[in-house]
Every structure is written in C-alpha cells, then in structure tokens.
Amino acid sequence: MSTTSVSGTIPDTDRIEDLPEDGATAPSAIDTAELGRILLGRWPEARLAARKRAEDPRFQSQYNLSFEDQRNVTFEQLKLLADAGPQYLGMPESVGGSMSPGANLSAFEELVLADPSLQIKSGVQWGLFGSAVLNLGTEEHHKKWLPSILDVSMPGAFAMTEIGHGSDVASIGTTATYIPETDEFEIHTPFKAAWKDYLGNAAVHGRAATVFAQLIVNGTNHGVHCLYVPLRDENGEFLPGVGGEDDGRKGGLNGIDNGRLHFDHVRVPRTNLLNKYGDVDENGVYSSPIPSPGRRFFTMIGTLVQGRVSLDGAATIANQAALSIAVRYAEQRRQFTTDSDIREQTLLDYQRHQRRLIPRIAETYAMTFAHQQLLDKFHEVFSGQDESDGNRQELETLAAAFKAMSTWSALDTLQECREACGGAGFMAKNRFVQLRADLDVYVTFEGDNTILLQLVAKRLLNDYSAEFKNADVGVMARYVADRATEAGFNRSGLRKLTQAFSDTGDSRKSVNALRDPAAQRALLTDRVQTMIGDIADELRAVARKSRTEQAEAFNNNQNRLLEAARSHAQLLQWEAFTAGLEKIEDPDTKRVLTWLRDLFGLHLIEQDLAWYLSYGRLSMRRGRALESYINRLIARLRPYALELVDSFGLSPELLRAEIGGTVEAERQEEAESYYRRLRASGDAPVKEPKPAKDPGAQTRGHHG
C-alpha cells in the first residue's frame, strides 16, 4: 500500500544498515547525581526523609513470624511512624499539618522500600480512614476526629467494599436510614452480600470506621454517602450490633489485619454523617451543594483518588528496586566461557539478558516521569491550586490509567528480575519473591485494574463524541470520508495532538523516522484514535436502539476498549518521558536518556506489531527491521545499565538484597584467582582428549 496516505506510517527501507548510528562517539558516562535529583521529583526532601526512615530496621519487613505476630509488629511500627510525623504533611494547619498533598504522597510511596505491609497499614489509617474524614467531612469533624486518627489512638477502617459489589460502589447494599424520632442514622447490612469485606484494620485493630452506605431520608434514597461509625470498645470488643470476621492469612501483606464487618441496625448520631457534599438537618431535610446525584457520587468518590495515585508511585519504586538488584547481579554474575578459559561471560553481556532487563529500565523511567506529572496534578487539585471540574476529571483518568499500568508492570518486572537472577532470585533474602507476593493485590485494590481501564476507555469515548457535539453536516461528511480512508483524528483522549506527518519519498531519510519523536508519537497516537474511532462508529450505530442492544454492542467491544485504554496510558507515559528529557542539562546524560525513551516507544510498537501491520501503519519490511533496530539500541544502552539504575538512588540499606551488593563479584574474583594460580603453577589437570573420529561410524549408523 501507499506509505504517504496514512498518518503514523513509517516508510520502507531496504537495509537495516541504513539506520543511523546517532553519532560516532558514545557518551563516556551518565551524570547520575543530576539524573538522581530529577528522578526524585518535585518534593525531594520528603522522599529523602522517607528513605532515611526506611533504612531504619525498626520499620522494615519481618516475615519469619506467624501472621498474627506480623500484624502486631506492623501495628507497633505504625505507632513509631506516627511519632515521626509524616502523616501531617497532607493535613490542614488546623490540626497541625502543612497541607502539602504532593509531599505527603511522596513520603508515603517510599514506605514500600521498608515494608509494603507498613505502607498499606498507614495508607488505611491516614490515606483512607483519615482522608475520608478530611475530604468528606467539615471543620467540626476535622477537630473532633482527626487528632486521634493522626496519632493512632483511634485506629480505623475504611468500609466501602462489599462482598457482593466490589468495584461497583454505586450499587452497595448497606443502608443508612434517618430516624427522625431520635435524630440518628441506622446503619444496616440487610444481606450477607452487603457485608463490608477485605478491610484493613477490620479484623483486630480498628475501633471505628468510615462506612459507605445508601443514605435514605424520608423514604428517598439519596445515593452513597459516608458516616463515621464506632466499631469496638477500648478492650477491642465489638459494640452492640456490630459484627465481623477475620479474613485470615493472605497471599501477601500479612502485616495487615483484613476482615469483614456487618451491621445490625446500628444507631449513630445524625452529626456522624460526613456532610461536605450531602447533609441532613435537624428537621430531617436533605440538602446538597451538588444537585445531580450522579455528579455528587463521583465527586465524593473522586476525593479519595489519592489511593490510586500513591499505588502508582509505590509500584514504580518497586520496579526501581527490583531492577537495581537484578542489574547489579547481572553485572557481576558470570556464566559460561566464551573467549577465555578462565574468565566467564557476564550475564548482562548476553543479548537475551539485555532484552529481559533494559526495556524494563526504559519502562520504569517512563513510569517515573509519568508519576511525577500525576503527582503534580494531584497536588494542584488537593492543595486548592486548581480544583476545577476539568482538572479533577483529568486527575481521576490519569490516576486510573497509570495505576493500572504500573501495578501490572511491577508484577511483571519483579517476576522477570527473579527469573533473571536464577536460584539466587528465589531466595527470600533477595527480596523478589516476597515483594511480588505483597504487591500482587495492588492490581486489585483501590480499583481493579480492568475496571480502571474501562473507566479510561469511557472517558476516551466521551472526549471523542464531544468532537461532534455541535458538528454541522459538512463536518460530518468530511468525518465519514476521513474514516473511509482511515485518516481519522489525531487526538489522545485527554488532549488534542494534531500531527503533521508526511513522507519525503527518500528512503534514506525516512529511516530516521524510527528515532524521530514526532513519528513515534504519531504511531502511538494513531493506534489510540483509530481504535476509539472504530468502536465509536459501532456504538453510534445502535445509539437509538434498545438498552439491551446497546449493552450488547458495548460488551462486544469491551476487549477492544480496554486495549485502547492501555495504549492511551502508554502514549501518556511516552509523552511524560519525552517531557522529562527537557529537564536534563548534561548533554551525555540527555543523549543516553533519549535512546532510552526511543527504546520505550519502539518496544511498545513492537509489542503491538500485529496491529500496526494489519492496519497498514508499518510495512512488512519495516516490521522486520524494527526488531533488529531495537536489538542495536539495547546493545548501545548496555554500557549504561548500571548507571541508569544507580540513578534511582536506592542504598544497600533500602534494597536489602545480598545479590544487590558485592558478594557475587567477590565469589567470581575468588574463582578466577584460583584458576589463574592453578594455571601458573603448572599443576592444572589437562582436559581429556576428544576421541578420534571413527571413519566407519557413519556407515554403520545408516545400516543400523
């Protein structure tokens, strides 16, 4: 097909040798100090202070315990952490805080290096239970409950998830019915599917909870609201009407006492309703500053987005830690001889080992820069710098997209690094196995990843549809013509990316497109816009049919929608990486990071190569050339792999993995010295000679 008519198409080239070398002289080194400062982001002081705490053994993981003992240790660690005071970073001045949401999450994310159980335990106490009071309550609630939440004298649970509805919060079964005779709300779980489940602090330690329930006033259901509900007395016994069960041992995060809660007509004062977005007065009259029930629900749920933001950051740091360990080991571990009988080959010199680790380094840098943008957006909204509806919606979509991508990536990277380190990677002392077990549930809580990508996909469809809201007949006619030729619109969903892309017709010049950021952006953008455009056309065709037919059409496109959302998230990560390059001043460092960005972009295209080929965005020749070019790019980056992970700035005390130190280099040096001495002594045994070739063997073989 023609390579000039489709946006994002890379022209053919005859020989991979035509690919440019990007200069004759390779950079001598990376400025790891400068790069490290950039990777710390906007709140380096908070991150460095958190890392200092994470180096303290008192805060670190203790896995060789029963899960009951591990829970108690984690609870004591939480109290120590409360004494250190990082939780006040995100709180208002009225309760002694500094109201810096970005610094607060920066410090929280680093706790994954100490112990994921402690991180999530503190997240339950302050990021969920405390944040519900902060963001859904009013000043009176803040003064009444936040001090005891912050100093952990009132441990609490965040009771949103139900057994029967999971991510479908709008359909939860728990009710909070206003009783006018006593000016109270009655909390009730009418059936077992409405029991609150998987709640941190619910099994043992929690003495109160922020409970989400359908608010019923004078026979009208006003939708999901949140109430502060006491659970246990000072002796840890359930209060009348409150019951629960222990979820028991889990696959990971066993320092957290997850459990179930249920309520049998439990009464709480009317003023226990966290009433920032919906209130009931002393006359039993409901009011809200947000008239639309749907918008009110999403506003309330949106105030709790920090959980997704922080999980994105924690997963990114887990990637950094895993790769720091695996690359250090691969630089020291030697296996099989090549050109020497004494010195074996370093693992990282093997192409397959480079393929395992270096693209994941590129992905982790993209995740790091993307998370910095997400954290900036979060700080804008929750510090009050920009609380507009548009900014909140963009924050929610970015958080959903990045949390899904980074938590999946963490599981993949931890597993690949484990395997890349062989048997040593399976040893508990080298961190991979337990970190992966602890982070496994990150893909599920704060929103199941598949559900989150569906949220992103719906946003993409809404943005796409908005393009035509006020379109006249002429615009629609041009659109139909454009779709017929697969030109479409160049847009990313959250922002418009108008790309001018043309083929010069000179194959010697057009091969530069593989490294051209405009071409990478065009290819990545085109995949998203084409997929969304195709789906939108199919859904538009049933827009006036029955709800059943519309639901069936949506379901038939669900997998494609999720793929489009994934591609959109990857595009945003690529853009964040590209923007991050502008922060780098050292030319050698910028050059190496540009190669790393190119590797990230081209590896994404390689992963979806079937789509690019089937839609004519790449020719078969260019598709074949892509693998060879990526291999060359990885080989070019190999000398800088150790510096790239060193720039993450993770000390041995934070990694706490034997193979992440020098023990393997010492073993290798000892073995090499032994063979050198043996050879020099003249006492080395000679190898058994190969047997002489039997000239009749081939003949006998043919005749049995």
Automatic annotation (TrEMBL):
Residues of the Acyl-CoA oxidase C-terminal domain: 519-660
Family indicated by similarity: Belongs to the acyl-CoA oxidase family.
Biased segments, Polar residues type: 1-10
SUPFAM superfamilies: Acyl-CoA dehydrogenase C-terminal domain-like (SSF47203), Acyl-CoA dehydrogenase NM domain-like (SSF56645)
GO MF: acyl-CoA oxidase activity; FAD binding; fatty acid binding
Compartments in which it is found: Peroxisome
Positions of the Acyl-CoA dehydrogenase/oxidase N-terminal domain: 69-151
Region annotation Disordered: where it falls in the sequence: 1-27, 678-704
Protein name according to UniProt: acyl-CoA oxidase
Boundaries of every Acyl-CoA oxidase C-alpha1 domain copy: 302-461
UniProt source species: Kocuria tytonicola
Main location: other
CC cofactor: FAD
A GO biological-process term: lipid homeostasis
EC number(s) on file: 1.3.3.6
Keywords: FAD, Fatty acid metabolism, Flavoprotein, Lipid metabolism, Oxidoreductase, Peroxisome
